[in-house]
Write a structure and sequence with these properties.
CATH class of the largest domain: Alpha Beta
Number of domains: 2
CATH architecture of the largest domain: 3-Layer(aba) Sandwich
Oligomer: single chain
Largest sheet: 8 strands, mixed
CATH superfamily of the largest domain: Alpha/Beta hydrolase fold, catalytic domain
Helix content: 40-55%
Strand content: 15-25%
Order of helices and strands: EEEHEHEHEHHHHEHEHH
CATH topology of the largest domain: Rossmann fold
Number of helices: 10
Strand order of the largest sheet: 1-2-4-3-5-6-7-8
Radius of gyration: 20 Å
Structural class: alpha/beta
Shape: globular
Number of strands: 8
Length: 257
């Protein structure tokens, strides 16, 4: 189904007949489909809601560049419209950013949290990364200066595009120009100050070899969220929850009881 919220046609689906509500929030570049086997497995006992974040799946783009709080407000309004609060939230990667924000700022909406490969903590930059960032900023400033000179505008535009392709991540380069602005706003937010404010019981599930949101992030969340426990899926990566979904569901059921 589609519901208009904050200028976005937001796609959501529901299944199950249980009296306890679960909301599933997918990662960046993913969709409701990434939770399909888990939603089906839980639908026998729970009322499950899955959504496509704005600019993902079947949902439309935000009308302007959004940050984490904008995505969270969109989800908050859907929760209230559907009358599913308080709900247990299961979130992966970028969805975890939104879940952290909601749990810290709208605790009345959240019962328990399950975060897998949760994003939201800034990685310390290596010296090489710092130098790379400095080179990028220096070249970007040069091309932006050239843009102001009319005969050189086309050269500047092609230079900026080449710069983005060289220095941008695969996720960033796959986006439209407008969504790149949203992406930058999102990834530059450090949500670590929210962790001590989260009162919801929290289960953290991590792939041991996750290189998108490394295991140290899960360990930090376990330490700083007051009521949190960490389960590590040995030898697996950022999508451990999906690759080992039967195991993930078993862990979920034990926690949600």
């Amino acid at each position: 189904m589609l519901t208009e919220i904050k200028g976005v046609n937001l796609h959501w689906e529901q299944s199950g007949q249980g009296d306890k509500n679960i909301l599933m929030l997918h990662g960046w570049g993913c969709s409701t489909k990434h939770f399909e086997p888990i939603a089906k497995a839980l639908a026998s006992d729970y009322h499950v809601t899955v959504i496509d974040f704005p600019a993902h799946g079947e949902s439309s783009q935000p009308p302007e560049p959004w940050g984490v709080s904008d995505f969270a407000d969109c989800v908050k309004q859907l929760i209230e419209k559907l009358g599913i609060a308080p709900c247990d939230i299961i979130a992966h990667s970028f969805g975890g950013r939104v879940a952290l924000w909601l749990a810290a700022n709208e605790p009345q909406l959240v019962n328990r949290l399950v975060l897998t490969g949760c994003a939201g903590l800034r990685k310390p930059q290596t010296e090489e990364q710092k130098k790379k960032s400095q080179r990028y900023q220096k070249l970007k400033k040069l091309y932006l200066g050239l843009e102001k000179v009319k005969p050189l505008q086309s050269l500047a535009e092609s230079g900026l595009k080449a710069l983005q392709q060289k220095y941008g991540s695969a996720d960033y380069n796959a986006l439209s120009d407008e969504m790149k602005k949203t992406f930058v706003k999102v990834v530059n937010e450090d949500l670590s100050p929210l962790l001590p404010r989260i009162q919801a019981s929290t289960l953290l599930v991590w792939g041991e070899k996750d290189d998108s949101t490394p295991l140290w992030m899960g360990q930090k969340m376990e330490k700083e969220i007051p009521d949190a426990g960490l389960v590590v899926f040995e030898g697996d990566d950022h999508f451990a929850y999906l690759r080992q979904w039967p195991r993930f569901v078993t862990v979920l059921r034990a926690f949600l009881k």
